[in-house]
């Protein structure tokens, strides 16, 4: 018989898929390979950090049997934490602002987590604010706050799993690694591991225009999960050789191309990272460095969570972005 005892055993070991048509006549080199993180059981790369952060807190005693995990998140990290917590018998409370969609809250509740919704329209110092409520809950006895922005086990999970997987899957032939930057955990952990194996590996961050990593001040951008208006502790400022800034319109257009041309239904931050990888591939094509180049780009999550945004023509058009091609839809009237 071939089975695992828990979905937690299915985290990691995601495949690399070669990008092809969406690279626009790139030719045979460089080779561009996408690491498909939506194949993790919680649907994103964040399953990896959730496992590692929880295991480390168990080992240090910060998280005790019957304890409660409190984190102000409604995104992929929440799903990962909810999944791991449920399997290990911990309670989970997520604090999120009321602008977070009901669908996202329902995913967390489906795993058995509790969701506390805070009003957006109050000042940060108000007792009901997102910040105050999560701090208050996290200071209760038995509560533990992972804090993905400063928890060293976030980058460490990538240093210990994702990085070695990529090195092995490419037989050590990877020359460039591209990833979007949010907390910085992915790029810092994988980048450090790869550079330790081969100092010539180039690490490239992809960042939404306006975010601090590409020199902005945090000006609003629409792609979710990446870009910051502050410098998180998890981001190793020495790891990236280069940051490629990507405009929202390019991120979204390329996200849609990945679905239509590569059959990869991924989120907007994946489109952003893959767009940067494509730009890099075209810069290298025809140069001696490009000859044997192997570019690996990490695609963090699935497009399922963005069907009403990136994959919705009206939503895109409302921001003035081109809708590009998507399959036709017919409404059938009277039968
Ligand atoms: N894409 C998505 C959809 C994410 O949720 C995140 C995590 N915030 C990232 C990319 C960036 O990963 P990291 O936090 O490791 O930098």
From TrEMBL:
It catalyses: L-homocysteine + L-serine = L,L-cystathionine + H2O. Its cofactor is pyridoxal 5'-phosphate. One of its GO terms (biological process) is cysteine biosynthetic process via cystathionine. Residues 141-162 are annotated as: Disordered. Pathway: Amino-acid biosynthesis; L-cysteine biosynthesis; L-cysteine from L-homocysteine and L-serine: step 1/2. One of its GO terms (cellular component) is cytoplasm. Its EC number is 4.2.1.22. Belongs to the cysteine synthase/cystathionine beta-synthase family. This is Cystathionine beta-synthase. It comes from Nocardioides guangzhouensis.
């Amino acid at each position: 018989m071939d089975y695992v005892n828990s979905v937690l055993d299915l985290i990691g070991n995601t495949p690399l898929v070669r990008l092809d048509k969406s690279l626009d006549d790139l030719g045979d080199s460089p080779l561009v390979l996408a690491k498909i993180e939506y194949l993790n059981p919680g649907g994103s790369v964040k399953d990896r950090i959730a496992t590692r952060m929880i295991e480390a807190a168990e080992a240090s005693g910060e998280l005790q049997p019957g304890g409660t995990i409190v984190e102000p998140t409604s995104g992929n990290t929440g799903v990962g934490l909810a999944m791991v917590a449920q399997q290990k018998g911990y309670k989970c409370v997520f604090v999120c602002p009321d602008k977070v969609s009901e669908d996202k809250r329902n995913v967390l509740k489906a795993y058995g987590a509790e969701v506390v919704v805070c009003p957006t329209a109050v000042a940060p110092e108000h007792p009901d604010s997102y910040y105050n409520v999560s701090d208050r809950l996290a200071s209760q006895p038995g509560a533990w706050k992972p804090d993905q922005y400063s928890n060293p086990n976030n980058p460490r999970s990538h240093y210990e799993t994702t990085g070695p997987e990529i090195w092995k899957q490419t037989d050590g032939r990877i020359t460039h690694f591209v990833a979007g930057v949010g907390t910085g955990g992915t790029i810092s952990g994988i980048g450090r591991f790869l550079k330790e194996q081969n100092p010539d590996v180039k690490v490239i961050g992809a960042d939404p225009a306006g975010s601090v990593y590409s020199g902005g001040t945090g000006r609003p951008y629409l792609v979710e999960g990446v870009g910051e208006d502050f410098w998180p502790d998890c981001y190793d400022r020495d790891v990236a050789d280069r940051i490629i800034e990507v405009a929202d319109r390019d991120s979204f257009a390329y996200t849609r191309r990945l679905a239509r041309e590569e059959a990869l239904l991924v989120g907007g931050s994946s489109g952003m990272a893959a767009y940067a990888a494509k730009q890099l591939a075209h810069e290298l094509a025809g140069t001696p460095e490009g000859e044997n180049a192997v570019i690996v780009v990490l695609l963090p999550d699935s497009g399922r969570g963005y069907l009403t945004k990136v994959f919705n023509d009206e939503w895109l058009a409302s921001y003035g972005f081109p809708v590009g091609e998507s399959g036709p839809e017919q409404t059938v009237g009277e039968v």
